[in-house]
Design goal:
The structure is a single chain. This protein has eight helices and seven strands, in the order E-H-E-H-E-H-E-H-E-H-E-H-H-H-E. It is of the alpha/beta class. Helix 1 links the parallel strand 1 and strand 2. Helix 1 packs parallel to helix 2, helix 1 crosses helix 8 and helix 3 runs parallel beside helix 4. 42% of the residues are buried. Bound molecules: NADP nicotinamide-adenine-dinucleotide phosphate. NADP nicotinamide-adenine-dinucleotide phosphate (NAP) binds next to helix 1, helix 4 and helix 6. The site of NADP nicotinamide-adenine-dinucleotide phosphate has 32 residues, from helix 1, helix 4 and helix 6. InterPro entries: NAD(P)-bd_dom_sf, SDR, SDR_fam.
Length: 250
């Protein structure tokens, strides 16, 4: 199926590994010029080489700590200057942050900054050009809502879902779509540190109908569809990619 993505431009945060890397590669091989940002220069360089080898459009890479207060402004300015215009924004950078029931203020603030505020701020930096051009697709990568432990990142991601819905209500009239993608347990560095191979197997057999953790490519497949013109009537929704792991139908 042609996703009609060829010739479009995109900004992807957290592009060095995991979902962001897989999404960047998928979009690039669909003919999208991606502005790929993260902190790890070596990984971003290897991503460029990997995409070149796969015959995709070589991404522009930009080294930036997303936590820095001026990161949204710098990323938006550099992306607009190198791409000319931005058609697609994938808000993905982040990290899981399990905390004790009484977590420190520093940890809570750090998570809300990285996993909520910076995404909102980067989006706000790019919104004027989306609105002026009366087009755009924004995809927010979120998290599960069914944890029975404290994870500050999942709380920040829940805030993203509510904000994302509100934004979609305001931006539809400009032809701008805003969606969220909720991953279940996907095999990336972010998750590997919490499960041994044996724990993964045991957990997946007990909790995931499809029997294993997903792969970053599973997220990239859904992401590429959601940001593409094929999804032109989809906005304000949350797409779940979790092997059936959610307990509730709604
Ligand atoms: N994997 C899962 O099962 C799962 C489940 C639920 C939610 N999520 C969420 O999905 C998103 C992607 O997760 P993943 O599994 O792909 O994680 P990952 O493999 O650890 O990748 C995280 C990405 O975010 C970037 N990042 C983290 N902190 C950053 C910072 N301060 N500045 C700039 N970039 C930063 C990292 O780049 P650098 O280190 O190079 O900066 C990396 O590219 C995260 O928000 C995560 O919380 C994942």
């Amino acid at each position: 199926m042609d996703l009609y993505l060829n010739g479009k431009t995109a900004v992807v945060t957290g592009a060095s590994q995991g979902f962001g890397r897989a999404i960047t590669k998928e979009l690039a091989t669909e003919g999208v010029k991606v502005f790929a940002t993260a902190r790890n220069e070596d990984l971003l360089d290897s991503l460029k080489a990997e995409i070149r080898k796969a015959g995709g459009i070589e991404p522009v890479t930009f080294i930036q700590d997303f936590v820095a207060a001026d990161a949204p402004e710098k990323i938006a300015a550099a992306a607009l200057s190198s791409l000319g215009q931005v058609d697609i924004l994938v808000n993905n950078a982040g990290r899981s942050r399990p905390l004790d029931v009484i977590g420190s203020e520093e940890e809570w603030a750090a998570s809300m900054t990285l996993d909520f505020d910076r995404h909102r701020q980067l989006t706000q930096q790019l919104l004027p050009q989306f609105m002026e051009r009366k087009q755009g697709s924004i995809l927010n990568i979120t998290s599960t809502y069914e944890l029975k432990m404290i994870n500050a990142s999942a709380v920040a991601k829940a805030a993203i879902v509510v904000w994302s819905k509100q934004l979609s209500g305001q931006l539809g009239r400009y032809g701008i779509r805003v969606n969220s993608l909720q991953p279940g347990l996907i095999d990336t560095e972010n998750i590997r540190r919490f499960f041994t191979a044996e724990q993964r197997k045991e957990h997946a057999e007990r909790e995931i109908p499809l029997g294993d953790f997903g792969e970053a490519q599973d997220i990239a497949n859904m992401a590429a569809f959601l940001v593409s013109p094929r999804a032109k009537y989809i906005t304000g929704t949350v797409a779940v990619v979790d092997g059936g792991g959610r307990h509730y139908a709604f």
